[in-house]
Amino acid sequence: KVGWYNDVLQPAFHLPYPDDTLAFVVLSTPSMFDKAFKPFVNKERLKIIRDPVDQCVSHHLSCVKEKFPDQRVDVMFDYEILPSRKPKFLAQTAAHVAGAAYYYQRKDVKLDPWGKKKIYGVCIHPKYGGWFAIRGLLLFPDIQVLLLKQSAPIDCVSTEEKRIELLEQFNFHWKDGRYRDIIEVKERYSEEQKHYFATPPAERFRLLGLTHEAQ
Fold this sequence. Notes:
This protein has seven helices and five strands, in the order αβααβαβββααα.
């Protein structure tokens, strides 16, 4: 419910819908790269003019929207920002309140070792660890779900030591990706996928064999 999200945030970040409005958080799993992204690039390569992953996600969520011709469906993407420069929605908070992934933050550590350093939080999925992404939000403004029960996300990094290790790795060593394996995972990105996301965005077009014109 939108209300679960709004309840934990300051009014400036609230979604402008009634509390009982139905919403879905959309995650991409490791297999997205082979099952959705590569086929999309092969089929739509001449139409790709901005970030290929964003465009792929946008395409697939548009397809979902078409499945509900009689419903109003509002889509928000993780990369969208408002004129105020604020994100349209806080993806990690949305994933947490939806029960999809646990959002570990500084406040989850009792004996905080970081002093005045800025420490960012990170979501961990019980099956994929950090090998996933939060891509968007589907909102159904005409559907009110008064009786929907909230499920808590699975707390899979439950010890103080592991939480400190997770936040340390994410904040200070995120490039090596070790934080993604803070728990034992069922599936992780392929080597090809790791290489793609490790490549600077401006060079990814060349990696996919897309033309300079498309870029």
